[in-house]
Amino acid sequence: MRLAPTATRPAANPLAGTIVRGFSRYGLITVFVLAVFGAVLLASGKDPLKAYADTFRFTLASAYGFSELLVRVTPLLFAAIAVALPARLGLINVGGEGQLYMGALAASAGAFQLAAAPAWILLPVVLLLGFLGGAVWAAIPGALRAAKLVNETVSTLLLNYIPPLIVSYLIFGPWRSPENSGFPQSPRYPKAALLPSLFDTRVHAGLLVALAGLAAYGWLVDRTRWGVEMRAIGGNPEAARRLGIAVPAWTVAGLALGGGFAGLAGMGEAMGIAGRLQQSLSPGYGFTGFLVAWLAGGRPLGILLMAFLFAVITAAGDILQISQGLPYAVVNILLATILFVVLASRSAPRTSK
Amino acid sequence: MLIAMKPPSATPLVELRAISKRYGEVQANDRVDLSLYGGEVHALLGENGAGKSTLSKILYGFVRADSGQILLNHGAVDLHSPREARARGIGMVFQNFMLIPALSVLENIALHLANLPAVLSRKAVARRIAQFGERFSLAVDPYADIRQLSVGEQQKVEILKLLMAEARVLILDEPTKVLAPHEVDALFRVFSDLKAAGYAILFITHKLREVIRCADRITVMRQGRVAGRLDAPEADVNVLVAMMFGEQGVEAAEPPELRPASVVSTAPPILELRNASCRATGSETALRHLDLCIASREIVGVAGVSGSGQKELGDLILGLRPISSGSKWMHGEDASRWSIARMRGCGLAFIPEDPLAMAAVPGLPVRENLVLGTGRRYWKGIGIDWRALEAAMNDSFGSLQFARPPLERPIATLSGGNLQRVVIAREMAHAPTLILALYPTRGLDVRSAVSVRELLRRARDRGSGVLLISEDLEELADMADRLLVLFDGTIAGEFKRGAWRLEEVGHLMTGTRQPIHPAAEAGAAASV
Amino acid sequence: MTTPLVAGLLAGAILSGTSLLYATLGETLVERSGIVNLGLEGLLLIGASVGFALTAASGNPWLGVAGAAAAAASANLLFGWLVVTRKANQLATGLGLMFFGFGVSALIGSRYTGAVISGLPRWRPAWLGDVAWIKSTTLFNYDLLTWLAVPVACLAWWVLFETRWGLGLRAVGENPAAAFAAGRDPAALQYQVLPLGGALAGLAGAHLSLAVTLTWSEYMTGGRGFIAIALVIFSKWNPLWAIAGALLFGGAEALQLQLQARGTGISPFFLDMVPYLLTLLVLLAWGGSRRLAAPASLGRTFYGSS
Predict the structure, then answer these.
(1) CATH fold match for the domains B12-95+169-246 and B271-347+432-528
(2) What dihedral angle (degrees, nearest 10) is formed by the CA atoms of B211, B217, B223, B227?
(3) What CATH number is given for B12-95+169-246 in this structure?
(4) CB distance A330–C276 less than 8 Å?
């Protein structure tokens, strides 16, 4: 599957050229989005121009709005890396949802167990556990694929459903919050486990981790010897095997690494935003992350831009629900339509740039 | 409906006039004329790249000619698609069979019948298959799945397909490439049955001897043009060679003259398989109780019809397939459980049958493809020492006298021959002790094939051991110091240079004679 | 004592399994032509929501059924246009269809949440209804869709293996080039099977909202689409085997409901996990060999490199 290009950018190319090329492509996609969004709004009997204005006002034009965008961007970045990294190996990870919940779960367990520890211990611990939770959960489909038992697309999909159920079980049971609130949730995490927030907003340090992760992912694939092996497997696993690359080990490792990032998304949402473990941790970040990664062609810069775009769209969905009575479901239709338009406009198989 | 016996017809069934076709810079066909008459075998002879394939594709409607005419029974037609060609009675058997392995013979044939009823009637189709099968020596089990059939049987199904779809003109593209000598005899018997019934056969090949055996008329192509036309009585090897190659003769057209025997190797073996077996799934061939050794300074050839286990043998030695019983030894150490990386690290080089599919990664540039398979040699911290790699590879290309393509080119844009050269340069860069070459000259033009063979001989002379798996018996006769015959996953025979005959080997290749082991090796298990 | 349990289980299995069977059949036919549709979940939701909405609005459940089938068939045609004519990546397009289904179904269903409908009428042949141990259960007291499920599966099998059209379809799924060389039009065959598969998926969704739950809620299909996709593999792309698979998984779900109803100590959440774990286990046990049974040309990207 051509989710990610396998050719590296030759070192000689000026950075400027690539930025221009990237922006023109993503710029085009953005224009599409605006047009389609407008059409959908018209079809729903709403005023597109007012919608654009409202959206702009409440997202990009205000500091609070922009910070809310960043809040949405953070888990999307993680979820997109969770898809893009394994994709370099030709692996398809649609299990971001489940891996996300697993990460939140593992991190929560750590936070509750070590409740008394100080922040400089607890924070790294929950970060690590968040990563490991997702990584282990993704390693299962990886192992199944490496053993040629089950295709990872199917297994990651099926495994999506289990961690949320485990979370539900826990917050209805052993981890039920003693507070008598309307809906079930875990008790608050110890303060030391909470991710510090940036600039007094809801944006948390997870964003920095996500950006660092994005850079690390790009550098891993393009500049290290592991990256060569990964791209070799993604380009031609038969040949890679014959050339002595340990493909089964990489299959597990690739999915695990990806899952780890999804786990960090979960940990970020739990320890950075919600402050406790809840059922509604993710409105489908796993799947939107897939779309972000796919539209971005797996490239780090593209992931950043597309994540922003999706953040604006979902924010618009919320805003317009309030300001114009637009049902939130329209967001899903919009995302689907964008994807369809992009898919329809590519008449040839994607070539690597 | 079976066609009554007829003499060769007076008017051509199909006529191609002044057919031309250009692909980019290459003039694949240049004003070619060809006439096919009923009741005869017309051979289209030429080397790889002469334009035979293009012409046949045009005749079959796969490709449209740039200019020229196709006349059927004197009427000009424009063939837009194979469907149309078939509707007009032209059928083609390709080199790669267009059969569907998961479906049965009956279903594959039914797929091609023009007036198949909406509800299938398997018995009726089976009956017709039996009728045609008997009439034209093409008997086959209608209910067998294609993947269970041998290559020769699959070819029969292909021909049946065409006959039952009421083709009158049959085009066969290199049909004998995958057949053993006596299967070729069977095919020629089919030809004469078909001739007698008035069918026209276009036999596309580059094999001179077969053409002389069975063709009634011969058209020779060279570089897109018709280089000459002959009737059967006039045909002889030298005339045909002259037409095919112009004035220069090439080794490939000469009789398989044996080169002087090289010094018999007495060195300890580099690679040994002792009673090795490996399992197989699906359409693979299981290897059973193989005893094999390759010593330094020798080329061991392996002959066999396709599907005898060649791919599995290569994969077993490489380490891709696990050994289920027996053992594998490399440089005197038990290598049965070694990883591929370790085998390569110990000096194993692998030249696969399809380099783009098996030894190169299409999306990566040449530079990165060159570093793959070199193990840890060029690791520098977490990166790669590109400079050292470049230097080493330049040396390799230089010593092989190959031109090195630009490093940044995506490897998928290289031609087949150039790609093969890159793979070979990479594999030979670190003085390998053992070279596994599977069909290394397949698909190469004559010059490249000759240079690859030279290269393998030089490697042998310098001390490497070479395992050469090939479908070309002439090539094996030329190159091999020892020849093994692989059949159905076992070694059916072993011969020293100069001590074997084509016919004998052919029978061993198809399992129609008891295996013999003249070089008695203790413990070699009889297979059949 | 056990008879009621077994009978109850069987009845529940058949009821649950009906929508699974229709969904699996739809996907099987489409996959036989070489196309993987991961958006099956979206199609089910479209079927469920459209069916429910039409029934609530008109009072006629058959209108709902017809509308569900038509709506899902159209959605599948859109998917088909992207995948066949625009040659888009099947996976991404399938996920897009899933999102589309989420959104459209939520939009359509939102107006009717909480509406009360009478659903599809049930019917039991008199001679069965008189048998003592059957009388007290819901066994064989089914709606038309359930009664037709197995016959439809048999029909699907027959069409695939005993007709010229089915042969062509299978050929396209195995090797489109060979099918084309044989004079079939791969794209045309795919365009023919896609609305058929979509309609079956629509029926599956309609059955859920009109015969099983008699309500509508967002995401009510709960992953059945993905289980159906796994069932296609489990049944080796053979409609007859799909019957067994649907029954098995319907049974798992029924068991889960029975256990919950009887108040065992097991948390309902763990019981909810059973279908997915079971699917995975089944694939584990038999998945390896199944790969060889797949149509050789099945959305090449689906099986990646294997």
Answers:
(1) yes
(2) 120
(3) 3.40.50.300
(4) no
Q: Do A340 and C82 touch (CB under 8 A)?
A: yes
Residue contact C276–A161, C-beta within 8 A:
yes
What tokens were used for C48? 């469920």
Residues of chain A contacting residue B341, judged by C-beta atoms under 8 Å apart:
244-246
- In chain A, residues with a C-beta closer than 8 Å to the C-beta of B372 are 228-229, 232, 239-240, 243, 245
Domain ranges of chain B: 12-95+169-246, 271-347+432-528, 363-430
Q: Minimal Cα–Cα distance from A114 to chain C, Å?
A: 27
0.90 surpassed by pTM? no
Both tokens assigned to B76 = 């000009």
End-to-end CA distance of chain C: 50
What ipTM is given for this predicted complex? Answer: 0.85
Q: From CA B303, how far away is CA A112, in angstroms rounded?
A: 68
Runs of H (alpha helix) within B348-415:
355-358, 366-371, 386-400
Quickly tell me which residue has 């990651």 as its tokens: A156
Domain at B271-347+432-528: CATH architecture: 3-Layer(aba) Sandwich (3.40)
Helix (H, G, I), strand (E, B) or coil at C266: coil
For B81, list phi and psi in degrees, rounded to 5. Answer: -160, 165
* Ordered per-residue pLDDT tens for chain C, 306 residues: 456 777 778 888 999 999 999 999 999 999 999 999 999 999 999 999 999 999 999 989 999 999 999 999 999 999 999 999 988 888 889 989 999 999 999 888 888 888 888 888 888 877 777 776 666 667 788 899 999 999 999 999 999 999 999 999 999 999 888 888 787 889 999 999 999 999 999 999 999 999 999 989 888 998 899 889 988 988 889 999 999 999 988 988 888 878 777 777 777 788 888 888 888 888 888 766 666 677 877 875 333 222
Which residues in chain A are closer than 8 Å to B373, comparing Cβ atoms? 242-244
Domains of chain C: 2-117+147-293 (1.10.3470)
Tell which of B312, B321, B364, B426 to mutate to test the A interface (max A CBs under 10 Å): B364
Interface of C with A in 284-303 (CB under 8 A): 284, 287-288, 291, 301-303
| CATH architecture assignment, domain A18-345 | Orthogonal Bundle (1.10)
